[in-house]
Here is the input.
Amino acid sequence: MDKKINNKEKTINNKEVVFQNKYIRNFAIIAHIDHGKSTLSDRIIEKCGGLSEREMKSQVLDSLDVEKERGITVKAQCVSLKYTLDNQEYIINLIDTPGHVDFSYEVKRSLAACEGAVVLVDASQGVQAQTMANVYNAIDEDLFMMPVLNKVDLPSADAEACTDQIRNLLGIEMEPLQVSAKTGKGVEKVIESIIENIPSPIGDINKETRAVLVDGWYDKYAGVVLLVKIIDGSLRPKQGIKMINTGSNYTIENVGIFTPKRVELKELTSGMVGFMIANIRDLSDCKLGDTIVLKDSTITESLPGFKEMRPVVFCGIYPADSSDYETLKASLEKLKLNDGSLLIEKINMPSLGSGFRCGFLGLLHLEVTQQRLDQEFDINVIMTSPSVEYKIIKKDGEVLFLNHPSEMPEVNKIDFIEEPWIKASVIVDEEFLGNTIVLCEEKRGRQESMEYMSGINEASKRIILKYRFPLSDIIFDFNDKLKSATKGYGSFEYEDDGYEVSNIVAVSILVDGIKVDALSTLIYRDHAESYGRNACEILRDNIKRHLFPIAVQAAIGGKIIARETVKPLRKDVTAKCYGGDATRKRKLLEKQKKGKKKMKELMAGKVSIPQKAITNVLKRKN
Here is the structure.
């Protein structure tokens, strides 16, 4: 822990700061969603003087509009702070991570830049599913884990039961610190414990420079900004650098840290986590997890990078206006730099034109990406129905991975179809066990085990259910229904578990006889009729009425499984007739009928479907 490193002193705002490895602490805060990670980060920033009282605001590290609106952390954020303990100044690099399972890749990348992790547990809720998943990720990175109990000031808090859960479920023997992130109680003890217990980074400033690309984002003023962790050596402005995996060469313009305000430095040295700007214009040259070395370096072997996450939800994204294709392409590339788990591939559909096939870690990840495209890049998009990736085995032995009916081979050429399954851990209170099991069975779940764990109080017992589910039934609304069935106290996390043969069919949605590719989907046969009826009803209520009836249908192959009709507008052409022969009225109605028929022929395939209708169908897919 106290490796002998040459003293290296630099000046920041005329203050001498020691940048020795042994005085640096890199740590992340990991926890389940809503356990208080961002609030604890705020208090740590306050105690370290990162921002003045006037500059502080709630969830200061949640910088995206979507984070503020939804009240969740989407992007991991790093901030470098100074804290003095026993007359020695330390630099602590804090990384606030997301808690939702859809953003687990952010957590994994953040942990790779740390030597320790603060495991935060809500003292009123105890250990939750995502807490356990994040701890397993920290174990994989061989990090020191420091448990902290938050919200101990609540009447429902039970520190003793939570401590037992931390020891028995997470295997952490260290006595957890008790804090209230909201009031600031115990936060200074947490900072001091971080300095005393979390190891300092291992590295040598005298060795050849090696750095890991941890994160990146696009700044409209500075261009591409990269977040890097220096393993050995140092990085300075005007140095030429090279990225080993992509072979790209650049010259550094600026380096520095976030406090959380951006502060430029003369140098980033071994053990530090900071930003680097190098006039990077081609975003494809930046690969998260890549190793950065100096341009004339003899190092050819890259450091262990990040394990790439495999997307589980796929959909097509197309510009609402075809002239916005290049804008959409640039916007997605910028998001890809910022979000390493986002998969982007070019695709073309006859009815929608050129667009992109995108892969996401979950439906929330998809919704957040759509919202960021709208808010950050001001671009309107059409998104096809989300789907998982199915495995198609053809009779000739060829294997295809597809997620949209437009790519399906002919039915007589398919031998069988397999769908992805996952292993899930569901944690619920005993009183909600019945509701949870019913929900799991509705989602075609197969129970593998059920274990009791200590509850937060004597009246409650918590249970861990181990289930296997088809992924397509989980990604859309399982989390919401679980929260409803357990009054908000249930939680779950999952991981891939291969493929199994299943009865999958392609459902097509037709409006006025024209197939709507954005809503066509691959789906389990027993759910096909329900999806078709929902889609038809929503489209019937949202499509603008014309002067002729519009048929809205759902079909499997040539078989119609659901139908609705958008009623026509009717102009009263007989309003001007006052008495007289009835044949006059009949003649006017016949003329109107012929006019409507002609209009329908002229308007064939031109019925517009509002994006709101498509979004409503997708939300009610299951």
Remarks:
- The first strand starts at residue 9 and ends at 12.
- The chain is about 25% helix and 35% strand.
